[in-house]
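Example 3.2
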Amino acid sequence: SLPDCRVASIGLGKVQYYCTSDNNKDGPPKPALGDAPSAEKAGAAKASPSALVRAVLKKREYGPKYTQNNFITAVRAMNEFCLKPSDLEQLRKIRRRSPHDDTEAFTVFLRSDVEAKALDVWGSQEALARERNLRKEVEREYQENIFRNQQLLKEYKDFWGNTQVKSKKSIHSLASISNNGLNFFFKLLAWVYTGSASMFSEAIHSLADTCNQGLLALGISQSVRNPDAGHPYGFSNMRYIASLISGVGIFMMGAGLSWYHGIMGLLHPEPIESLLWAYCILAGSLVSEGATLLVAINEIRKSAQKNGLSFYEYVMQSRDPSTNVVLLEDAAAVLGVILAAGCMGLTSLTGNPYYDSLGSLGVGTLLGAVSAFLIYTNTEALLGRSIQAERVQKLTEFLENDPAVRAIHDVKATDMGLSKVRFKAEVDFDGRVVTRSYLEKQDIDQILNDIQQVKTPEELENFMLKHGENIIDTLGAEVDRLEKELKQRNPEVRHVDLEIL
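Structure, written as tokens:
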């Protein structure tokens, strides 16, 4: 190991350098010859009643890369160094605090021991590298086989039908898809029969709603997938992504085609046939769209009450994008039906087809407003929106009420979707409380006896290093305790990152 250099200050302004090595077992450190004081100076220092001795550790230079104190797990040792469990049985085992909630401690190995064992097993670095490449190729083929099996399983489920019970939101989305699809079919027939521009806009409106509900159902199914190595925080944002694409689709397909057909109707007006069947279809559409709108309103009201928000706040903050899309699309559909029916009625009374074209432009404008709102709210959600200030204050106060915490700084609590929260904060710990927590678990008489045995700077260093390392472990345990208690008291908090200040 590297030598440990000390400085002893004797008298006023007189410095004596000591260099000690961890391998020195012959007694206390000896002064370096080049810096040894003369006999006259030493006698003067000894005679001085105000002589003070202070041992100072010089900072060690570890270099740009130092891995002698690194620990690695058994799985990593076997994967990176191509070792077997029997090889690891011969190495030193160290119990460390586990980073996972389901286990308190786990076994690790010194990286230097593992590297030495790998060289002993494989003979050279070149042989180890060849074995690594061979195993990577086998792993790649294994992953390809798994992918092919997953594809076959998916095709099998698609062929025989997936019997998995769907969530309530998925059922609502499928019902909305069926409802909008039927509305599109009947409105399209009415447009072909009457030639009404307003009816064409309503048909396009229902088609856009059908496609967007399909996107929404896909987003819901993807958002409940379990996290994996490539996506450690899960796929909950897929709902926002699907809703964002839905907003763009409404604008391009719904608003764009409605405006185009309305403008063409103003430039080239055509006579309109009997609108009786169109009125009947609009009436049926109003009933079906109104029913789904009431269901969406009830769902949002319940969710808003559960989160302690008003109906307006819940919608504006896009807490549930799937329900919000259904709400806005159904509200726009109801208003669009009323607007189209009114414009078609004016056309029937006056015989002027311009009113019908204006109805198409009005429906297009309505769809454009809905799409703009969806794009804005879901973009804000994807950017990482903070949770309510009251909830942030509640989480902060819980940490500050702990005796081991002096202060909390730089708090960030973001909504991850699906009622999941990620919490991050800088924690200023009370070192005296943490140290007392460590001492409460120790034999004080034994520590006192160890202190009395300290006679040399080397013995003092070993004593301080031993208890200093244990206190650092205690500090880490305090961080784990706070994170665990924060999650238990606040189930919506799924990921906690507490950084020591």
